[in-house]
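Holo prediction — zinc ion.
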Amino acid sequence: MQAIIKQTPEFGGLLLADVPMPTMGASDVLVKIRKTAICGTDIHIYTWDTWAQKTIKTPQIIGHEFVGEVIDIGELVTGIKVGDIVSGEGHLVCGVCRHCITGKQHLCRQTTGIGVNIDGVFSEYISIPASNAWVCDPSISEDVLSVCDPLGNAVHTALSFNLVGEDVLITGAGPIGLMSVPIARRAGARHIVVTDINPKRLEMAKELGATATVDVTKEKIADVMKAIGLKEGFDIGLEMSGSPHAFGDMVDAMANGGKMAILGILPNETKVDWNKVIFRSLFIKGIYGREMYDTWYRMTAMLQSGLDKEVAKVITHNYNFKDFQAAFEMMHSGESGKVILNWN
Ligand code: NAD
Ligand code: ZN
């Protein structure tokens, strides 16, 4: 079968290669991939940055965002049948630690990542544990189903706190920040203000229902707050940029007692004004992945009640997998929303 691999550290970029079919265990399902989506993580591997050099063991098939059709199941598998359309949770867990056996697998310390620590989904077929496969509603478009993983990040982050009647600040209008706008809207937020440094992405945030946007290269969040009559600061902050500047902006703009959910991966040297955090009684929650499997249930229910139409607007490009080079360049340019690879 064909797969997109990182061949060796020395080989620049990625390669479309012939690789053996995956082997399948008794508790696994074999999936024929239909669509995959490119994530920032894949771009880190593509550009072979320091994180990738430290983390990835070559040769490796990359990718973790997918939708496909189940074409075989192991003899111990129940609840999934051949023909089901599935997406999947990309974090494999140990299954025996305290968190795993108490329904909080997303907090397992022995997590391995599909497409990071083990072979990924940018290939014609994959085998995954049946417990990681999520049977999808086939009435939802496959483009949208292929982005369940990052959409799940948005759902997990945005629903971390009660949003009814609250004013929400989202820093970073990348694909996940953008998907968070309609989620926050549906969850009952009053004002949703989105910041970025990219005018195109801020335009998309407006189309998706943001009350106001702030291009932080030209405008101040405080001025926009004044313009919409927001006096005491934001009740809820969703950090989705990974930028230390954005994190600082958020701390400054929060109301006393405000709650912040941090998804963006901040560099270690990020400075935090702890006096503001402490004396203004801020609450900070780190977010990793998706809650297993509460996030998947809520995401499915929201997709079935119309969120799918909004998520579809965040998908801006579609390529055949053979044109992966152009697709990765598009994602890398920052000028796109989600970029899909078609494997049909
Ligand atoms: P992305 O990199 O496409 O989006 C980040 C956005 O932040 C970009 O549009 C960028 O222009 C914007 N930005 C840069 N500087 C800014 C500033 N000073 N103020 C406001 N915005 C600024 O990423 P994405 O795919 O949407 O993911 C969002 C973040 O979440 C990334 O940091 C990613 O690494 C992280 N992430 C975390 C997890 C997790 O489990 N914790 C999972 C997926 C992604
Ligand atoms: Zn565990």
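READOUT: The pocket of zinc ion (ligand 2) is lined by residues 93-94, 97, 99-100, 108, 110 (CB under 6 Å).
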